[in-house]
Amino acid sequence: MDDTTPRVELTPAAADLLRQLHSVHGPLMFHQSGGCCDGSAPMCYPEGEFRTGGSDVLLAELEVDGVAEPVSFWISRSQYEAWSHTRLIVDVVAGRGSGFSLEAPEGVRFLTRSRVVGA
Predict the structure, then answer these.
(1) Alpha-carbon distance values, 36 to 32, 33, 39, 41 (Å)
(2) I want to staple 45 with a disulfide (CB 3.0 to 4.6 A). Which of 20, 27, 50, 75 is the partner?
(3) What is the pTM of this model?
(4) pLDDT the model gives residue 111
(5) pLDDT in tens, 40-53
């Protein structure tokens, strides 16, 4: 993947939800671990609430119109390696995801879709 291809993008619905969550919670971040339960979905937290470390990769700093600071998108290194040939697209679908992600009380959940780059 070349440097001009964004690694992560947001659908308009995801951007709208991030604006809503930001108005309540302030600066935000995503982490996608690929772990059990809803760990394979991107989890949204207040910035810094999820502690990242050496096993995580900062994949993108997402610019969202109406949100002053970028939304960081972290992914576990194992997921990074598995998804290295794709562009991740963060979307929103109806239904409850994990209780740990900020959107859970809203009756929706973030979902990662992917598109193979260069195919």
Answers:
(1) 11, 9, 5, 10
(2) 50
(3) 0.88
(4) 92
(5) 689 999 999 999 99
Write out the two tokens for 68: 């002053």
With contact defined as beta carbons under 8 Å apart, do 86 and 117 qualify?
Answer: yes
User: What are the helix (H) ranges across the chain?
Assistant: 12-25, 77-82
Rounded to the nearest 5°, which phi and psi values hold at 45?
A: -135, 160
pLDDT tens digits for 106-115?
Answer: 899 999 998 8
Nearest residue to 92 via CA among 110, 76, 79: 110
Note whether 118 and 39 are within 8 A (CB): no
Q: What are the residues whose beta carbons fall under 8 Å from the beta carbon of 5, sequence distance 6 or more?
A: 87, 117
C-alpha separations of 41 from 2, 58, 65 in Å: 25, 16, 23
Nearest alpha carbon to residue 38 among 119, 95, 115, 118: 95
